[in-house]
Specification:
By secondary structure, this protein is an alpha/beta fold. 42% of the residues lie in helices and 16% in strands. It has one domain: 2-Layer Sandwich (Nucleotidyltransferase, domain 5). It contains 7 helices and 6 strands; from the N terminus they run ββββαβαβααααα. The longest helix has 22 residues, at 174-195. Manganese (II) ion (MN) binds at residues 23, 25, 153.
């Protein structure tokens, strides 16, 4: 269910299908300060690959070719952060992308709870724990709990997308979601370029 790998051990060309869930674990939320420690990927088949990123590692060719492959849709939850982190770490801009948090904001306007745990609970009736979120991801060896947690951040994104897409159709907001996804990589680049606290559309 959760495979623990190094970048070089990834399946050749990282062929996980045409829709791949992606998430990152870092030392914190400041991209320029807090290094990338793990990248989790899943093809939606119930398996998650937790890829360890070493301190100072500057290349991840298998991951990067998947991230920039126009034929692979990358699923994120709050992709704005992960896209920025991955671009800063390896210079690969993820596209095309889908973000479950953006869709949640577009269709679950009845709720102000758009965290992954809330979505998985509300839409899939599955309870996941976020206990390990702030654990030490830079440790030499990750614990079983950490690997399980890291896997759970990508294992449900395909099913969430199915539920969320149904709601997008119901509410007639597919085109808004698509436009947001197309802008999302640029939004991540704006964050890195210094506009992280600015709404560039504001008056
Ligand atoms: Mn995560």
């Amino acid at each position: 269910m959760a495979n623990f790998l190094h970048e070089n051990d990834l399946p050749d060309g990282l062929d996980l299908g045409s829709v791949v869930a992606v998430d990152c674990e870092t030392m914190g939320l400041r991209v320029y300060r807090d290094r990338l420690c793990a990248v989790q990927v899943s093809g939606g088949d119930g398996d998650a690959h937790v890829v360890r990123i070493a301190a100072g590692q500057e290349e991840a060719p298998n991951l990067c070719s998947m991230l920039s492959d126009p034929g692979v849709l990358k699923l994120f939850h709050f992709g704005r952060f992960d896209i920025a982190v991955l671009y800063y770490a390896f210079g690969a801009l993820a596209a095309p992308v889908y973000c479950t948090k953006i869709v949640s904001r577009l269709v679950r306007t009845n709720s102000d709870r758009h965290g992954l745990k809330d979505l998985v609970s509300d839409l899939l009736k599955i309870e996941i724990t976020k206990q390990e979120q702030s654990s030490d991801w830079g440790a030499d060896r990750l614990t079983k709990k950490q690997i399980k947690y890291a896997a759970s951040d990508v294992l449900y994104l395909h099913r969430l997308r199915d539920r969320l897409d149904e709601r997008l159709v119901r509410e007639g907001r597919e085109h808004l979601a698509q436009s947001c996804f197309e802008f999302l990589p640029a939004r991540a680049l704006l964050d890195l370029a210094g506009w992280q606290d600015t709404d560039i559309f504001a008056h």
